[in-house]
Amino acid sequence: MLGAACAALAGVTFGACGAKTVSTGAFQGEQREVAKAISNLQSDVTSGEEQKICNNDLASEVVARLDAAPGGCKAAIKEQLAEIDSSDLSVDSIQLSGAGAQRAASASVRSVYGGKTRRSTVSLLKQGGKWKISAVS
Fold first, then answer.
1. For the sheet containing 88-97, what is the strand order?
2. What element of type H or E holds 122?
């Protein structure tokens, strides 16, 4: 269970690290909020803010899985951050689905790591009025 959550986070953080910020200008309304959530993760990863990542960026289900491990979410994030290098990230598209408490988003992201382009899908859920990262595939 912890391995799946960490693997998902590793996919996000590989794409999220770097000195650049995710551009949100191409998106409007709720899609812009989703892009901003990804940008916030990038910022928190870049500054090594493990507690902010757990409290602000990750969906409650991911945090619960990470909290079940020794040291909890913060320790798991710290371990992941120690294993990543810098890269650039861009959000290509965002799809919204569901309504109310079931609101979800899927963002197609592109990262460059070690000179190679990697495409991933970042899944987000709207929890407590904020978009939170729930998975990466």
1. 88-97, 104-113, 116-127, 130-136
2. strand 116-127
Domain ranges of the chain: 2-136
Output the CA angle 89-87-126, nearest 5 degrees: 40
pLDDT at 87 over 60: no
pLDDT of res. 13: 46
**CATH 3.10.450 applies to domain 2-136:** yes
Helices (H) and strands (E) in the chain, counts: 5, 4
Whole-prediction pTM value? Answer: 0.80
Cα(5)–Cα(1) distance, rounded to whole angstroms?
A: 7
Per residue in 56-70, pLDDT tens?
A: 999 999 999 999 989
Q: How far is the CA of 38 from the CAs of 15, 69, 72, 121, 131, in angstroms? A: 10, 25, 22, 12, 9
pLDDT at 21 (0 to 100): 58
C-alpha 36/C-alpha 39 separation (Å) is 5
